[in-house]
Amino acid sequence: MKKMADKITYKIIHADDKIINAMTIIVDILMIIIFALTLILKTNFMYGLYWLFIILFLAVDLISIMHWDVDGLRTEKRESDKIIRGFRDATAMTVILSAFGFLAIIFLETIKKDITKNTYVIIGLFCLLAITQLFNRLMIHANIKETAKFTKEFYKKNNKEK
User: How many domains does the chain have?
Assistant: First the structure.
């Protein structure tokens, strides 16, 4: 089982950036469509599809974070670790917040039936996930810029020393 998980992790980390971005955009668009249809149609099928896509939405967000993790940058250990640690801390908090929100709603469903069909719960969770995903995208963008800046400065400094 560990070998299979390692293979999946390897494929995610080394996937083409365009594929990861396209997958994220497609899931985001589908999520918005399903969200709107759930609020309009209010059928059991749409509620089920919405909650199924919430899981897919969370999984794709996690895949995107795993892919953009900058573990490969090891030019100067101490400085690159600061960049990586900040990125991982921030994205870990958003993933935990998103998952906790989802799991709290599922737990409350066991106590009080039909909470997953409540319009306010659906809108609230969608907004929470949209905000956390937006924050993750901003963190990824900032991390890429910071890494590029650091790498440029590091190589500029090392080339002057030679």
Answer: 1
